[in-house]
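Why Hydroxymethylglutaryl-CoA synthase? Reviewers of the renewal asked for a concrete example.
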Amino acid sequence: MQIGIDQLAFYTPKTYLDLVDLAHARGEEPDKYRIGIGQSEQAVIPVTQDAVTLAANAAVRVVDDTNRDKIAMVLFGTESGIDNSKSAAIYLKRLLKLPDNIRAVEIKQACYGATAGVQFAHDYVRLHPDKQVLVIGADIARYGLKTPGEVTQGGGAVALTISAEPKLLNLDDATAFRSEDIMDFWRPLYRTEALVDGRFSENVYVDFFKAVWQDYQQQTKLTIGDFTAFAFHLPFTKMGLKGLRAILPEASEDQQKQLMTNFEASRQYNRQVGNLYTGSLYLSLRSLFDNADLKPRQRIGLFSYGSGAEGEFFSGTISDAFDVQASRRWFTDFFRSRQRLTMTQYERLFSQQLPDHDVLLDLSHDDARFVLTGIKHDQRQYLDRGE
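Here is what the prediction returned.
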């Protein structure tokens, strides 16, 4: 019996910033951003969207009347939680009208949270093959205006269903993981923006990737020659390229070309969206599926990394039922419909923060199905426009 990713959807608001505009405004050469870090655009998240609404807008594309009653768990990976106690998954469960007899929990370990959810879901479905698990990675990446990390901001959500006999990717049982207490990136409770030791974090990322890749090879006896492509956690796409280059010498010349071609396919969407934190790896996987020339039964390697730090390498083979046409059309339509912000609009939108008191928000500039309407009696108020 195969267990793996059956469906994989994405959502982010249509407002975005072109990084050429950001470079000019900050006195930088555009190629520093486009080539140096591998980004061209970034999503800008309005105050009417949070981790819950982002997740709901992604999840409605993978949850409907055909599988709603099959979902046994909601595992919500995020480092942008909205409450110190109540799980974002509970809010999502209600918005999606999921049954009451399910588990709904939030998982936190920086950008690694969604991968923990995928692995927990894999084990659960193996014991309960008639059930599915909804896994979410939803975040808003904020470093602040005119900061070194500004160019690696972004946000959005991925929603995956894990099931038996999946339509996208059959996950292999073998996995290699590593954790260490490292201060390369952190988000104190009293701050709305993250803190990061950028160069140190890049080095830890590559070191963790090499360590778990070697561990995986020792476990499985597989080599780089057994892989058609690799998908990486991409806080910015140049980071994944550094990881891939660390192992490329293990491949033949022809395979190196294939792996580089497929890496370019895997970072196409991330270049245009920016940093998703927990969702970054899975947007990269979606981009690989949609933009590379893949065939059933080819093996894909996946590297997940969460600062602080946790890393994991795992793999899967493409399902015989693999079909990407609908996803390709969705992304084509989405990118065509986006609204490019001016620097003034971007800075104003970025600076709008939810207050710590009751408020009613202006929804006129947010056309999403699920929106945050405000706060009432210290409770976030959500609206489903599809009802």
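The longest helix spans residues 198-220. This is the kind of structural detail the renewal will allow us to pursue systematically.
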